[in-house]
Amino acid sequence: MTTAEYHNFLPSPFRRVAVHHYDGYAFDEVTHSHDSFQFTYILEGEADFVIDGVRHRLEAGQLALLRPGVTHHFHTASHAVTRAYNCYGGMASREQLGALADFLAPWIKNQFLIARPAVGDIHPPVNRLITSQAEPETSRHATEYALNLQILIAFCNAILAEHPLPLVPDIPPPIIKSLHFMEKNYASPLNLARLSEVSALSPSRFSALFAETIGCPPMQYVHRQRLGKAKDLLAFSNLPLPQIALQAGFASPSYFCRSFKAATGFSPAAYRRRHALAT
After folding, report:
1. 3-state SS string over the chain?
2. Domains of the chain
3. Is the pTM above the cut of 0.90?
């Protein structure tokens, strides 16, 4: 059985943060991947990630980072009680995290890394996060954001200490600029002309360079971002479908439903029911 001691949606660089309690065997229903980062830190017990058929055991005190696009399967043992802090998020701005923002670039794909942060960096803010739920609404949101940001920075520093990576991805600056713009404005009306204007390139040059660098046309990338946001909202919120369509950037609820089923094979309502049964 899986329960959440803490769960919330937060602004960028977060999407969803939770402290999960797994009592006995828990598993992902299917092998899957995310459009967002996933940080999983084992607070107590142990858990396994299966990546490309290889099993990676995480014990208490270990952290796993799954970048966008990593196909995986997660499960805990039937005889164990496991607690884990899970953070799903997208990119951060340099105003938020400075050079660490480049490490959280969602277009850097297909990496699975394990590290061991200092316990003193993680457990105190997680414990404080759980107790913050009892605080007045006026201060709780800011408190939770600050604590999660503290945890996220500790995670990034631990990963970089054990797995030194270049902070600046090998992507042309105009494309990086457009990617940041898309991440911040995916819910707004976007078109090729607007994105090419942001990149200071002609529409044809921008479209060709984007596809060459990222692997898909720019508007297809925007569509994938919107679908990813919609999946999160369907799975982890009680918002009605019209509001989800609006928040995810779809022009209308009917277009959202058609697009979602074409991409996933499920209607939004069926996807929500399916996830509810699996958790």
Report:
1. CEEEEEEEECCCCEEEEEEEEEECCEECCCCECCCCEEEEEEEECEEEEEECCEEEEEECCCEEEECCCCCEEEEECCCCEEEEEEEEECCCCHHHHCCHHHHCCCCCCCCEEEECCCHHHHHHHHHHHHHHHHCCHHHHHHHHHHHHHHHHHHHHHHHHHHCCCCCCCCCCHHHHHHHHHHHHHCCCCCCHHHHHHHHCCCHHHHHHHHHHHHCCCHHHHHHHHHHHHHHHHHHHCCCCHHHHHHHHCCCCHHHHHHHHHHHHCCCHHHHHHHHHHHC
2. 2-162 (2.60.120.280), 173-278 (1.10.10.60)
3. no
